[in-house]
Amino acid sequence: MIPPKNIRTEIADRMIRIVAPSTIFGMLLITIIILLMGSRQYSRLIPACLTLVFMIPTWFLAAKGKALTGAKVLLTSVNIAILTGMILNGGSQAPAYIATLSFVTIFTILYGVRGGFLYALGTTSIGFLFVYLQFKGVLSEVTPPPAIYIVFIIGICLFVQIVFVSIPVRMMLQALDESKKQGSKLNTAIHEQKTSQTLLESILNKTPDIIFRLDNEGNITFINNAVRRYKLIPDSFLGKSILDYIHPNDMATAQENLINMTPKNHGERTIELRVLGKRKIDPSSTEKLSNENWATFNIEIDDIYSENPETPGNYIGIQGIARDISRTKHFEKQSSQLAVVVEQAADVVVITDTEGIIQYVNSKFITTIGYSKKEVVGKRISILSSGKHDKKFYTALWTEIKNGNVWNGRIWNRKKDGSTILHDTSIFPIFDIRLSFFLFVTVLKSVMIVSENHSKRTK
After folding, report:
1. Which of 12, 221, 258, 374 meets the CB 3.0–4.6 Å disulfide criterion with 71?
2. Which pLDDT belongs to residue 225?
3. DSSP string covering 109-120, please?
4. What is the count of structural domains for the chain?
5. pTM reported for the whole predicted model
6. 291 located within any domain
7. Which residues constitute the domain of residue 442?
8. Residues 282 and 311 reside in one and the same domain
9. What is the crossing angle of helices 5-36 and 104-136, to 10°?
10. Higher pLDDT, 44 or 382
11. 430-436: long-range contacts, CB 8 A cutoff, minimum separation 24
12. Pairing relationship of beta strands 407-414 and 358-361 according to DSSP bridges
């Protein structure tokens, strides 16, 4: 297995920075030793000079950021230099060449096990070939170099090996320590991501609103567990067209806003659709239009883009939140019907808040009492007080209705023209969903109309 290129490059760069200067110093020292030798074996200068020459491109390549190539040049130059010395000196440098076996670790790290094996095999074969040739007398006899020369060559090779091995070892230790730190950070990030994902899934699945996504053809790609409230399974929706679940009368709205997208209807928008809420209906059946099989949803939708929202070509679908407003619509319908009944009732109807501020009066109030809606809405109901009932009377009345009870009795009320009118009166509270009353409804049924002068004469 070969280490990643970035690691091999860093190893090679460090090696060149350490080995190249050392090699240059060593070759210069060898040159001095040869020049000082009494036998003046100048042929031994050739390997040293070759090594010095090869160090120039090695350093140049490393400086240009091509440390791997530089390492190849360095290792090759050392081997060529020693091989040249062996050829020129009758194989007397064979032991030094065999010493380059110490480079096998370098080749293994830089080029993998196969590279290291081939280098070891080639080096050993060539080295022992020269030893054999010298033993057989094939090579010319040359005065062997001093022992210090051979030792020095071997020393350089071993030095390169020690330096080179120490570099990857230190790097591996640093990488291991960094890996542990990164692993710890990664585990923390994964844990946080899983926690966030679990929380998000919990929110998506617990919300009562239906959250969904459609592709650009209107097919459902995601839908949360809210559909289980309608005894439906989320997975049964996946891959199906949203139009399969839309009320026929709302099909045009659905197609315009969910499928047939144009620049006009891109962006955030809200639509109202009736959607199949209980079970699949045979399209040919008249039952499909039955209101009990459909739920009305208020749907907030937005577009999904792959990358750039400004580019229409990147549009990939929509996502939305659908809230069931069927009950609200039902209550609105009932309220509308009730409002018509109240508005057209034969009796006077007045609605106030808990402080007696008038919120609503019907048409019968206008024709009977004489005030317009604008004149009384927002005013206290005491505007109708005739003055014929004392404070104790009204205190008892308010105590009764604020206790949540219905009050029945007769009250004299004053009309806009100043005359008074007697009403059979019923006052009852309206409760909210928390069972707290927030409105009072007063129903006035006329008993008789008596002018003040007539009342005085009667008394």
Report:
1. 12
2. 86
3. HHHHHHHHHHHH
4. 3
5. 0.43
6. yes
7. 344-458
8. yes
9. 40
10. 382
11. 430/351, 431/404
12. unpaired
